[in-house]
Amino acid sequence: MAKILVVDDERSIRNALQQVLEYDGHRVRLSPDGPSGLDDYAQFKPDVTLLDVKMPRMDGLEVLERIQKEDPGAIVVMISGHGTIRTAVEATRKGAFDFLEKPLKIDRLHLTLRNALIVRGLSDSVEQLKHDVEVRYEIVGGSEVIKTVLRRIETVGGTLARVMVTGENGTGKELAARALHRLSPRADRPFVDVNCAAIPANLIESELFGHVRGAFTGAVASRPGKFEQAHGGTLFLDEVGDMSPDAQAKVLKALEGDEVTRVGGTRPVPVDVRVVSATNKDLEEEIANGNFREDLYYRLNVVPIRMPPLRNRREDIPMLVTHFVDHLRKTSGVPAKPFAPEAIAELEGQDWPGNVRELKNTVERLLILSPGETVERADVLQVGSGHDAGGSFAESFASMESFQDFKDASEKAFIGEKLRANGWNVTETAARIGMARTNLHQKIKKHGLARAPATDGP
Predict the structure, then answer these.
(1) Which among 109-123, 244-258, 304-318 has the top mean pLDDT?
(2) Are residues 203 and 238 in the same domain?
(3) Which DSSP category does 358 fall into?
(4) How far is CA 260 from CA 45, 98, 263, in A?
(5) Per-residue confidence at 356, pLDDT binned at 50, 70, 90?
(6) Could you tell me the CA-to-CA distances from 392 to 381, 389, 395 in Å, in that order?
(7) Measured in whole angstroms, how far is the alpha carbon of residue 206 from the centre of its chain?
(8) Do residue 248 and residue 214 come from a single domain?
(9) Better-predicted residue by pLDDT, 33 or 400
(10) 10 Å Cβ neighbour count for 314?
């Protein structure tokens, strides 16, 4: 398997990555800061380096520059906190392969490693990671609505038609995209995902189309963009409805010509990609409001697939719970426990505004916090779906161990209340509280905020 160097000043992050990576059979070396990371890089000669952006003594950007100076072919993946995402994206312009956002997600880690090892040429490692990713991205369910989705995926998967996957947050749109890739003639080629909402408008061109050395200050090496990385495979444009107008125009041009030109370059590069897109927005409404290009919509929406919300497939919940228990036992070290029939019935009765993603988080929380050897209905009622643990915010002060805990709780309460007040319109809420929309999206994810069921009010 591959040799992977982890450079991060947070012990918990280093240990978690070591556990996951060694479980997958990789050789791992840990470095607590930049200087030691540089020493370890020279000695260990890793295939892939996971590098934190913000560290004491020497930050990740300086470490990246020094690594690239010594090894221009280095594969470096940046690890970014919520306040350093822009910096991490900037690092990709300076030669970093990709970036991972904290809190780290196992599925995203495996995907990034798989793509990195494809570039590195480690075929055995790629095959193992391909298997790991496929298992993690399995669509689980036996309901008629899910069977309908699977039939559509099987029908279109073997073609190269462009597909647009729609549905609420947490319904499994990326699962559908991955299933389409696995069933396509390109299954052995890269699957490259792009979160269109997470890339600042001024960086979208470099991120998607790449750049040549010297194209701008800090461009110390040429770097292929996502279109080139996905050549011969599948490009997944996630949250495509959040692209800026400029980004939409550039993507349309690339799709029309089947070629891209790197920033600072003059020679078009032919690209052969199968595009799958996803959004939780009503794009026809966005077109009517002037927020999305109609010509791009018809380019992307050749075959539509709609992922159903969990409340419309409650009969799948027992199967999903079993799947998540096994998955968490294997990947996160969470002890497996059976769920009592009454507990399952209670879970089936909830509305799940956060859909399958919320159910997975709830299962993990129940496995950790339930005191007995079996998860009971009382456990579900007590630790529940996490919307409100009970009691007022002021009453919870005494349980907070640090000022950081207080700040996090305050931020969660403030943002949650503002979102409810604005009908969960993220764009409007961001404008009213003076926060960038992408930053607000990150904080919503950080705190696990989700719209409450309609019967309980906004």
Answers:
(1) 304-318
(2) yes
(3) H
(4) 33, 19, 9
(5) very high
(6) 18, 9, 5
(7) 20
(8) yes
(9) 33
(10) 15
